[in-house]
């Protein structure tokens, strides 16, 4: 009886001192702004994805987002709680000034020992394109008009649709956007897939998105049978 107690105490001690498993499933999303952060936080809460961390970069350029992802990834690796997948969510409307495509190419060609699975989730001009696709298929290119940036033009198109659907104006700081759009989720994905195929055929990125790929990946985390998802890689047209 005494030896059994001793063996039991040893097992308890080992369990308490056991190091975290490097290969445990953990996921990180790094976003540019509040819009993306709120959307994915709402998705996480809806599906109870407790092993998903979402962080916002201090800078809005692609380099800052990538650097933040690498910093957080390295820190987690050192603490032996490495991320299985890291996602950088980019808006490509400032691709020329921030060298976003150079950053994306670097991310795809650099070996990251702290996380071999780093993915670029891209939208041009901005994340609101993904919202618009829930209501209608869009393919006409966007352009800045006067004092309005190309991103402002997308929001201008989205706002009356949002107002009609939800009886309130659209705002980039809305906190329950995934929940609001959930009943149109299938239409959004269908339109996004169609847009992606169409634009890839013409090497055009205005507009374009692969946000639906990340959304599908996250939604499937809670299912018993997860299907493999390939994340589309964007390259700057030559």
Spell out the blueprint of helices and strands.
Layout: H1 2-17, E1 27-31, H2 34-47, E2 52-56, H3 62-78, E3 85-91, H4 95-98, H5 100-109, E4 118-124, H6 128-132, H7 150-166, H8 177-181, H9 185-202, E5 208-209, H10 211-219
Parallel strand pairs: 1-2, 1-3, 3-4
Antiparallel strand pairs: 4-5
Describe the overall structure.
It is a single chain. The chain is of the alpha/beta class. The protein has one domain. It has helices at residues 2-17, 34-47, 62-78, 95-98, 100-109, 128-132, 150-166, 177-181, 185-202, 211-219, and strands spanning 27-31, 52-56, 85-91, 118-124, 208-209. It has a five-stranded mixed beta sheet with strand order 2-1-3-4-5, with helices on both faces. Mean pLDDT is 87; it is low at 1-23.
Radius of gyration: 21 Å
Distance between the termini: 76 Å
Number of individual domains = 1
Instruction: Write down the overall mean pLDDT.
Output: 87
If strands are numbered along the chain, what order do they take across the biggest sheet? 2-1-3-4-5
Strand content: 5-15%
Number of helices: 10
Helix content: 40-55%
Low-confidence segments, given as residue ranges, are: 1-23
Task: List the helices and strands in order.
Answer: HEHEHEHHEHHHHEH
Q: Which class do the helix and strand fractions yield?
A: alpha/beta
Dominant shape: globular
User: How many β-strand stretches?
Assistant: 5
Main sheet characteristics: 5 strands, mixed
